[in-house]
Automatic annotation (TrEMBL):
One of its GO terms (molecular function) is oxidoreductase activity. The gene is coxS_1. This is Carbon-monoxide dehydrogenase small subunit. Transmembrane segments: none annotated. Residues 32-108 form the 2Fe-2S ferredoxin-type domain. Residues 205-228 have a biased composition (Low complexity). Keywords: 2Fe-2S, Iron, Iron-sulfur, Metal-binding, Oxidoreductase. Residues 188-228 are annotated as: Disordered. Pfam families: Fer2, Fer2_2. The lineage of its organism: Bacteria, Bacillati, Actinomycetota, Actinomycetes, Micromonosporales.
Amino acid sequence: MFPACYAEPLAAGRPEDLSEGRFPLLTGGMMTRISITVDGVRYDDDVQPRTLLVHHLREQLGKVGTVVGCDTSNCGSCTVLMAGESVKSCTVLAVQADGLEITTVEGLAGASGDLHPVQQAFHDRHALQCGFCTPGMIMAAVDLLAENPDPTDAEIREGLEGNLCRCTGYQNIIRAVHDAAATIRATGATPEPASVADGPMPGTPDAEPAAESEPTPVPAEAVPRPVP
Ligand code: FES
Ligand code: FES
């Protein structure tokens, strides 16, 4: 049962008011066409100017490996790479990503399915308990190691300070980042991300048209959830 403060606007027909465009930003009256490449696949979609990147990824593209952990831009669970830099995707508008490449945790594994060294190290070091923070923690660690291949404990703590974990006490996370750093230094390379699918790209004229409220079809090679 709704408290009175919620029941009143519903009884007053608030949904109909919205659908008639009194609040165009809430109803989709103003849409912007964007083209972003996510995990190697290009998507063309119409989005509202207010749509956050994290919601676009999850709700329109089906990239649910990227998690919403807070409403305050504090937790870092939603971290993705945008043009190679880690960003909290709940602090970025989808329109700001237009024309850019986005990498989510779902695109880290190699085309052959091999885990990224950071993913493997999180698995090996058991650097998670509930796992909710893990996608963002991994993406932040990937960015950290791209900038600093041999970080100290302090540098790892500083590099991951925007990502909160309520479960692990961080020790295993730090050990995992050290392990991943050593692996990357030893091998000299990280796996190539999943490649663009053959055939028409979603959202292009040759592709099957997607219903407005349906997620854009997700290519098979982008589906595996590599989070340990
Ligand atoms: S969901 Fe983005 S910082 Fe918490
Ligand atoms: S493992 Fe649960 S929040 Fe980090």
